[in-house]
Specification:
OB fold (Dihydrolipoamide Acetyltransferase, E2P), 24% strand, 3 domains
Length: 310
Amino acid sequence: MKGLITKATGSWYQVRLDDGTSLACRLPGKMRLNDQEVVNPVAVGDIVHITLQSDGSGIIDRVTERKNRLLRKATHGRRGIQILASNVDLVLIVQSLRDPAFKTGFIDRVLVTCEAYEIQTLIVLNKTDLAKGTKDDIKLKDTEELYSKLGYRLLKTSIFRPTSLKLFREELRGKISVLTGHSGTGKSSLLNTLSPELNLKTGEVSQSSSKGKHTTTYAQLLELDKDTFVVDTPGIREFGLVDFEPYEISHHFPEMKPRIEHCHYSNCTHRHEPKCAVLKAVGEKLITESRYRSYLNIIESIEIESDNTF
């Protein structure tokens, strides 16, 4: 039989069969060992072939070839790669204006990954009803202008503004989408407002740390309509990049990519090298300071991770 992985808890997987029924399945040990770099060889969004067991459960025999996969570094002290979702049409990077306040560094990390794997993105600035005066209005406007000029799409949302929710639903229609973002940014609240029957657990933001508390504990594929699915991921405080060399990162920054060929050195890291076209553009404010800082933070984190490997 063949089906779609809709929930992955680590030991058991829910598989939606072609007839619409759901079956609990396990992984054979050999599949877990095939790719030791990947901590979860099967992820939500995967199409799998299964064999029915006498106890009514299933065994996953193989995973069909993936269109793509969204990756990050494994968490909780584990080494390796975690597949957040497979066969993705759209990644929504959900950040809140306040409680917790958004940081462009997280947005930039996800954008780099999606650029590399050619996955469409939508930046969702949520909780816009919490805007307080001119300062927040300017912050929203500047962020929208920054990413729009780079070719990225943005949507401002609030569960208290029906028009924004209508636009949000239209973005999801007919796709397998992934909602990713820090805990507390309102991902589950957005989905509950669109489909109250989901009844997803939501949480408050800690007043002491200004960080959201984890509410989603495992990835699951939620069916909003017959042809519309959303992957609700556990709240992500860090988005560690994988399978990148430091020199490759600038190729996934749209404002840097056309300038790379004009650098004096072919392996330029755009940090200190003479005759660097990217550094020149930063100095001329053609590349924003915030994006350049994100670039530096990303390549430094990759170098640190590489040093810790040995």
